[in-house]
Amino acid sequence: MKHTDLKLLKRRLEALAIYRELLADPVLDSLCRYLAAPSVSAYGEFVSALYRANGGDLCVHLRKLCENSENVYVRTVGQGMSPAPHLCRTLEQELATMQMVADLSPADLLQGLETADYLPAFTSEKVDLAACIQHRAANIRRYGYGIYAENHMFYLDSENRIVPVLHPDPILPEDLVDYTRERQIVLDNTRALLEGKPAANILLSGDAGTGKSSTVKAVGNALFAEGLRIIEVRKDQLCAIPGLLDELSANPLKFILFIDDLSFLKDDDNFNSLKALLEGSVSAKSPNVVIYATSNRRHIIRETFSDREGDDIHRNDTMQEM
What we know:
- The chain is of the alpha/beta class.
- It has helices at residues 3-14, 26-36, 40-54, 58-68, 72-78, 85-102, 106-110, 129-138, 140-143, 180-194, 212-222, 241-248, 269-279, 315-321, and strands at 153-156, 162-164, 202-205, 228-232, 254-259, 264-265, 289-295, 301-302.
- A hairpin with a 5-residue loop joins strand 1 (153-156) and strand 2 (162-164).
- The longest helix has 18 residues, at 85-102.
- The relative contact order is 0.10.
- The model has no long low-confidence stretch (mean pLDDT 86).
């Protein structure tokens, strides 16, 4: 690559629109700063950022960025619509720009600078970025985009934002024993969801330690490659579910909202929120979302003889919940 080509690459990166958010990536950011003012120090910063990202493979890093980008093009495709012709042309141009970056070698970047043996090196495995993105777009209902592209389990943080679980339980259906019929019901219902057929919300109840939560996680792991994701919602976050449904309804993937260890007091506002959601609230049921809940109680509303002795009616359920 000639020195003038590096200047052209800088201008092409500055003009990104569909992939513009990628310029905030530490590797691309340090590369842009190097292209603006080449120096040994700036080169070292770029390679250091690449080492931190994945050990030093530029093309693999660019492929990951492009495939996971939550941009206007993939959102349009994910909603089942055809992108406008100008978007398609822009995508083609920008992927050509990203391919230019992916094809860079240390010698390309160091032209015009005094080279030395002590300068750090990096590699770049050759990949056709345009072909990769075309494949992902054609199979977007399996791959998704953004944080959902590489992660399959999530939770809501204290501000009800969806956050990936970095170290999810790797359990699979074949790791579980007993309750085969019940697990098959859950699996069949989830496959119906993935196939776009009517799927039911499910409550798994039973004694502690019988594999209720493990069943949900195992199904999520087994069907990740088919486009299934799990989002865990705590009982005190049930009021956030209508907002979640609105956010997920336009997503091409299928989701399980997982509520673990569910039980309520009689006048619990959280129960009223869940009841209104299931029985029909102003939020329409999203065809790509189901709710799976587990409970150690067969009666999820804890009733007591409060007016008399104050004892729990379903004593066995209470013992299992403790």
